[in-house]
Amino acid sequence: MSYFKIEDLYVRRGDFELNGVNFELERGDFLSIIGKTGSGKTLLLETIAGIYKHKGRVFLDGIDITNTPLEKRRIGLVYQDFMLFNHLSVKQNLLYSKYRDEDLYRDIVDIFGLKRLLNRKPKNLSGGEKQKVAIARALISRPKLLLLDEPLSSIDFSFRYIFIEFLKEVHKRFDLTTIYVTHNLKEALSLSNKCGVLIDGKLVQFGHTKDVFERPTSKAVAEFLGFKNVLPCELIGLKDCYFSVSPYDVNLEGKGDFKIKARVISVSPKENANLVKMEVKNGVIYAYSHKALKGDVLIGFNKSKVVFFKE
C-alpha cells in the first residue's frame, strides 16, 4: 500500500475549485507540485493539511485521515511567508508545538545552525534564517508528511542554490516524505523525484519528474513547461494531436523524416547562432542557424526528436 494517497479530492473556495485530484506517494518521495499562480497549489496543500473540508479521501501511512482534525494529522505545513510568531523568540517558536520532541529539538538546532539565533525575534532574521526556523519548527513535531509552500520565494536569489542543497540534505537526513509547491521549474527539477502539474484546479499530469519534463501529455503542460514549436500534427500529416520539436533540432536544409515549407519572418542574432522565426501553415516555428536566411525555405526534423501529445 502507498504511504500517502489522495482519492478524488474535491474542494471549493469561492469561485475556485480543486476537482478530482488523485495521486499517491511512497515513503521518502519528494513531490513537486508545479503550476502558475492561481492554479490551486496552496489550496491543495492546505486541504491535505486539514484546513478545509473536502470530498474525496486522504490516506497517510496506511490510515484514512479524511476526517482527522488538522491538529492530529501529524502533517507539517510551512508557508512562503514563514508564519512565525513575531512576539516570540526563535527558541519559543521552535518549541511551540505540543508534539515537540526535546531531544530532536537539540539535534535540529545543531543541524540547522540555529544556536546563535535562539534568543532573537523573527524581525531580526534574514529571509533564509526565517525559513530555516519555520522548517525546523515543523520537523520538531516529527511530521509524517512535510508540506512546503513556495519556500524559496522570499529568499534572496543568490542564496537559493545553497538553500536547495540544504532542503535536499534535510529531506534525506530526516527520512521525510515531502510535497513541495512551486512555479519555479528549476527548483522542481533539482529537488523532486515525482512531479505533478496543476492547471486550473486539475492535476493534469503526474509521474516521475524526468518523464513529466521530457514527455508532457498535453499541449497545456508542454506550453507551461516552456516547450518551443508547439504545433498541430496536421502540419506533418498526422491527425488529432500536437507535437513539439526543439529549435536546435530543426534542420534548415530540409533534412529529416518530416519536411515542411516555411517562410522566414525574422532573423535575430543570439550569442552562438541566429534565431530564425518562420511562418508555417498552422503557426510559427523557430530554429537556430549560422546563416542569414530569408524568403521561402524547406525545413526538416527527425521523428526521434519530436514529442507528441494531445490537446
Based on the model shown, name its key terms.
Rossmann fold; 8 helices; alpha+beta
Q: What is the number of strand segments?
A: 17
- Kindly report the average pLDDT value: 93
> H/E series, N to C?
EEEHEEEHHHEHEHEEHHEEEEEEE
The share of residues in extended strands comes to: 25-35%
Poorly predicted segments: none
Overview of the molecule:
By secondary structure, the chain is an alpha+beta fold. The chain folds into two domains: 4-223, Rossmann fold; 227-309, Beta Barrel (OB fold (Dihydrolipoamide Acetyltransferase, E2P)), CATH 2.40.50. It has eight helices and 17 strands. The chain has helices at 41-49, 90-94, 102-111, 127-140, 160-173, 185-191, 209-214, 219-224; strands at 4-13, 16-25, 30-34, 55-60, 63-64, 75-78, 145-149, 178-182, 194-199, 202-208, 230-232, 242-245, 258-269, 274-280, 283-289, 296-301, 306-309. Strands 6-7-8-3-9-10 form a six-stranded mixed sheet, sandwiched between helices. Strands 2-1-4-5 form a four-stranded antiparallel sheet, covered by helices on one side. Strand 13 and strand 14 form a beta hairpin. The chain starts with a strand and ends with a strand. The model has no long low-confidence stretch (mean pLDDT 93).
